[in-house]
Amino acid sequence: MKKLLFLPILIFFFTVSWSQTQVNGVVVDERNEPLPFVTISFENSSEGTMSDEVGVFSLQSKQNYSKVVFSFIGYKTRIVPLAEVDPQNMKIIMKEETESLSEVMIYSGKTSKKNNPAIDILRKIWANKRKNGINNFEQYQFSKHEKIQFDINGIDSAYINNGFFDGMEFIFNNLDTNKVTGKTFLPIFLNESVSKVYGDNTTGKELEVLLGNKNSGFNNHQVLIDKVKGIYKEIDVYDNYLIYFKKNFVSPLSTTGIDNYNYVLADTAYVGNKWCYNIVYYPRRENELTFKGNFWVNDTTWAIKKINLEMAEDANVNWVKQIYI
Questions:
Q1: Which of 125, 283, 314, 325 is the most exposed place for a label (fewest CB within 10 A)?
Q2: Beta carbons within 8 Å of 117's beta carbon, 6+ residues apart
């Protein structure tokens, strides 16, 4: 009997010593649309994160917390007791704050290059950019996942009901929705690869070892993959120019960026466990190879934590309608 009693006591103390608080879920609005970039934190703590582009979040701590706080500009802040929900499958519905709608800002027009806190932050990014990223290490390694996909866009009911597809309606079971544009598409070719990258900044050499590759679709897929890779290269967000489709786009982080972009300090929040500034940027002039979007930068290392880039509507790139990075 002593052995039988000892086991549960041992498990009890083991569980207590490794206890933690972990929450997972999604944030949506009252129309059930996902809310990206919602600030999520444990109450009375400095531990927090943000929901991703589709409203999904995950947050954990080695400490014990009983409540989670959700906040977003234009919406009522929610404080959720964990005892009232399933912490591993939370669905948080945010309600609009009607009284604060007058505070919503629409950014347009040229911003000042002087006495602009966003540009002051940009200068600190320039001063520290060679200390951030893989340039900060003599040697480095990372895992790389690349996905190349071709789709048929503009799929609607008229397209699906076309008599040409009689007896083949099953192909539309794989329809998907673009997270950025919201449009429906049908994947017709897919290639995925996983590799390990090793680099040495002292010699400038880099080695990529392919660990696995899978594709489906066209027969002559390798020619297609090579063609696609030939029109873009892997980018470093700290570079002055980002090359896509053999065009030099001015990076919003470029040291000449203040001549090409307007910058606005829009918000502050946690990204992961780092306190960050959110900078909104948009082109100063039309018909240039520029982007619009925003980025989050840490307040001490001045490293970029997250960046979104969308090609300006009037940028002239043949055959290309949209670019999202």
A1: 314
A2: 265
